[in-house]
Amino acid sequence: MPVPVEFQAVVLAAGKGSRMLEITSGHPKCLLPVGPKPLIWYTLRKLQITGFNEAILIVLETQKAEIQSAIERELEGNSLDIKVDYVSIAEDQEDLGTADSLRLVQERLKSDVLVVSCDLVSDVNLGGVLNLFRKHNASIASLMFYHQASEPIVVPGPKSKHKPEKDLIGIDEQTQRLVFMASVSDFESQVTLPLSLLKKHTLVKMYSTLIDSHVYVLKNWVIQYLKSERSITSLKGELIPYIVKKQLSKPQKIDEVNQSIINTKDSNDIFSFAEEDELELAIREISSFNDHNGDLKSSYNNDPIRCYAYIAPKGSIGLRVNTLPAYWSINGKIQEVWNKVSINMSLIQKSPQANIQSNQVDDKCIISDGAKLNEKTSFKNANIGTNTTVNSFSRVFNSIVMNNVMIHEKVALENCIVCDNAVIEKGSSLKNCIVGNNHLVQAESECTNELLTEDLMHF
């Protein structure tokens, strides 16, 4: 009988990228290019470096073949060494939430679970949050980042104000217990904390600048509870805040004198899933260990449900690439942070399989396999995707050009994103624009701050 692994990794990659449909409409979010690699590569690389030999990857059935092909290319090129088990969501179920996605793989999960989003780019060692989980035999441990200030950037597309989402997160500074979690938008001007929370956790610090990385370590019983409580659809929005709140409660006591021979225990009560091992409780009872000081209460206040937050060290790189500004920002600095987020993998800026005839390609450019840069072209700080062709007398400055794009003669691109299979005809000039998937830009077009796509109905 095989020995079960301590943790199983689940990567959530079935999201449609609803906050940046300008570039994800018709394109898997997890395959968006970030520097020389698809977005999903950074998550899989992180798991590999952490010590995982395999991961369950949840994807949409309609995108599975494309995602699998992209990952296999990375495996064949030896930039990844991790087994990927694909689980697909059928087309008629594509609106499932993150909690729904976990239910799909519930029967495969025999150990505690590390859940990671496909859109994380970070240099943080996941061992920190895993060790915090181990140390306290936690129900949940979550990875948080400090908000990372960045210089103002001009994001391609129509001008708009991007208002980032903010959370209110309460953490006991003495124990690292995560005791409060809610969206700032849930409150108007005041936040009321339960008195029972403040009595139990006397050193609570409230944060409004922490970023939830969507990295969660979950006890296996949480997965079993999720299966029984089918009304919960979201991990971050529903499941995590609910379990954090339940820490303040206690299991219902049954009067043994008047106890019925009929089992009155609610099978869906969360405490019926969170029961602790009797031997572990006995060891804790005779141990001198206590997780807190300042009172005579038992360690962990005898809470069977315990949630924790691991805050990454200040200065860490941690970004969720789930909005257009975030995507543009990480691409702008990927070369600067490459050694940290790739864990010292060499950066190949110009693929040996690219046909580069231009002699004006600066050292900030990334040129992918099969790209053809004809003579008398100019490139500055440009990311040119696989099998993309740029014809003579064209220039591409500070832009992302994805895969299979055709750029004809005398085209000027500045501060633009051009998505897969687009065609830009002769003499066009685009500045601060987004060109959608499969879009044809007519010859001699002059556009500034525009979204050029056939799929306007999505926006």
TrEMBL record:
The keyword Cytoplasm applies. Residues 380-443 form the Glucose-1-phosphate adenylyltransferase/Bifunctional protein GlmU-like C-terminal hexapeptide domain. GO terms for molecular function: guanyl-nucleotide exchange factor activity; translation initiation factor activity. One of its GO terms (cellular component) is eukaryotic translation initiation factor 2B complex. The keyword tRNA-binding does not apply. It is found in: Cytoplasm, Cytosol. Residues 9-148 form the Nucleotidyl transferase domain. One of its GO terms (biological process) is cytoplasmic translational initiation. Its main location: cytoplasm. It comes from the Eukaryota. Component of the translation initiation factor 2B (eIF2B) complex which is a heterodecamer of two sets of five different subunits: alpha, beta, gamma, delta and epsilon. Subunits alpha, beta and delta comprise a regulatory subcomplex and subunits epsilon and gamma comprise a catalytic subcomplex. Within the complex, the hexameric regulatory complex resides at the center, with the two heterodimeric catalytic subcomplexes bound on opposite sides. Belongs to the eIF-2B gamma/epsilon subunits family. This is Translation initiation factor eIF2B subunit gamma. The lineage of its organism: Eukaryota, Metazoa, Ecdysozoa, Arthropoda, Hexapoda.
